[in-house]
Amino acid sequence: MGNMPIQRSIIRYNGLFDFDGMYAAIIDWAKNYGFMWHEVDYKHKVPSPEGAEQEWVWTMTKEVNDFIKYFYQLKVHMWDMQEVEVEIDGKKKTLTKGRIYFWIDGKMTYDWQNRFQGSRFREWMGKFYAKAKDPELSDYWDTIKYRGLQLNALIKKYFDMQAKHNSHVVYLKEN
Questions:
Q1: Reported confidence tier of residue 132, pLDDT bands at 50, 70, 90
Q2: Which helix (H) or strand (E) holds 63?
Q3: How many CA atoms lie within 13 A of 167 on its CB side?
Q4: pTM surpassing 0.90?
Q5: What range does the domain containing 95 cover?
Q6: Total domain count, the chain
Q7: Where does residue 89 fall: left (phi above 0), alpha (psi -120 to 50 degrees), or beta otherwise?
């Protein structure tokens, strides 16, 4: 089994944002692209006068085929978290105020079913198969890399930090 990681993405923000909307958008993004969503860990620490501290670990996996599997892990840490009610276009809405950090890691795993494990011959066959599939592996790796950038842009949208142009949209051939 082999892993090809993508570069870690880190997002830091301090201010007012729609945490519930962002959470729902991330889950919708995962479902939209066929990922299984799992909340691995959740911690809530006793609030201080500044606000609560919370941590989450979310994972998303996708079995692309019988040889390739995608994996993303999002670690989220929030400090000084407070719910704030604001009025937007005459309607009251609850937003979150605080400091938040995101760490987004991803990897592509090949031979995730360990079909080419157990003996020297099987391992040799696995290396041969991976070399034969090398152009396809590069395409799969590019896809997980650019999907990770797309996820990064989605999260930044909720902090009003997005750029005007995203190169990953061109590669993924999406609007």
A1: confident
A2: strand 51-63
A3: 3
A4: no
A5: 2-172
A6: 1
A7: left
